Model the fold of this input.
Amino acid sequence: MTTEKIVINGAASTYGIIGSPVSHSLSPVMHNEAFAALGMNCVYVPLPTDDLAKGVDGLKSLGFSGVSVTIPHKEEIVRYVDVLDPVAEKIGAVNTLVIGNREDPADLSIYGYNTDWVGANRALEEKIKLAGRRVLILGAGGSARAIGYGLLEAGAEIVLANRTVSKGEDLASRLGCGFVSLEQLNDVQADILVNTTSVGMIPDDDKSPVAKQLLNRFSVVMDIVYAPLETRLLREAADAGCKTISGLSMLLYQGVAQFELWTGCDAPVEVMRNVLHQRIK
Ligand code: ATR
Done:
């Protein structure tokens, strides 16, 4: 860590991550490294709590400038937000709070955003233009919901597949997209595959959510799993000639979007990418 650049003093702006648990989170190291690289008088701390109401009161009374919101609070936090970003409203989940307004010190409102979809779109757009593309999303949890809305915002057409059919159909009807069961994956033609399930994550890293013989139909395959960095899905997709995107990219770019909302500064993307790489390895 570039400790010689840190200038934390009593006037520091404070940021953090509110959730339960948060001890595994890579956000503290990513954001503190970014603040340090820019010599900013800012610090980012873990804020574990199961009691969101008291947690939000604490953030306001202690003068926090912004927080990341993680499991299990991303949906419940919406009711504590004063100004909700329209896409976060559609998604029904917030992963970023901006507390107060840099332009107006009298404004102590809590602004709520969702940068998960921003991160996914940026990670994908590095490899392929999204407008007009067809995307198969695996999974129907919170990540699928955020990514699905983001892809629709970008002008892509989506199809959803999920193990539990009722859950998959519910999300598909919310998104206004098609649904297929996992047994029907062979019938889907798409340019992009996005895995939002946890299949392939350590310790089940010998598993893949999709049979390898189905992969050569996709141009790009993205996995949101980042442990391991190269999942079995991504390894087999690369062997099948697809461009691949690891879970590190979405993690990075959702954090980059948070940093920029909080500070108004361009985030030091490579610094943040490098520290994530080191930690995930
Ligand atoms: P997140 O908030 O990250 O999206 P989640 O809400 O727990 O996490 O959703 C996890 C998704 O992974 C779900 O779609 C889940 O499928 P079910 O709806 O059938 O539970 C999917 N998933 C998890 N383990 C799976 C497995 N072994 N095989 C297939 N899908 C799996």
User: Anything to note?
Assistant: The mean pLDDT is 96. The first strand starts at residue 13 and ends at 19. The longest helix spans residues 247-263.
